[in-house]
Amino acid sequence: MPNKIKSFVWRSCQNILPTKSNLYRKQVINSEVCELCDKSCETTSHVLLHSDFATSVWEACGLVIGRECTFEDLFWKLGNDSRPSAMDLTNLMAVSWNIWNNRNGIRHGEKPKTVASLILEATRFVTEYQSLQDYPISSANSLPTRWNPPTTGVYKANVDHAIFRDKSTAGVGVLLWDDKG
Ligand SMILES: [Zn+2]
Q: In the chain, N or C: fewer CB atoms in 10 Å?
């Protein structure tokens, strides 16, 4: 996944996202109440997992998340569970990232996304990103006489692929590659 998403996931697991609860704790703001529902403190777990909206998103993805589960718990549980699960880590990262962006967008006056449009956007992102990963590998296999040094972006993609190899979905990415990447 791109570094900005990995950084977001890392900050979520460390509980250092600029949620209202975290800003309140640092005395930057004087209320930690979630502005979207007006009934809970806006912690990382609330925004990403347990708010009504987040709960609906995860249920639509096939995950039922216990009330006590933190983002870090969920991330490590999915990452270390060898049994097939409703979701792989790549999709978990993309969906969480979209939930956070949706929250930020609403705070900046943008229209809230629906559960379906948020999941669709996250799924599209993963498909396009994986097609970028698969492209250089497949082209190297089919054109053995030519070799081009990978660009920085490709190198990063390969590193990601190695880290999450066992959880990555097999790609048919080359067919989905288009001019938008
Ligand atoms: Zn809320």
A: C
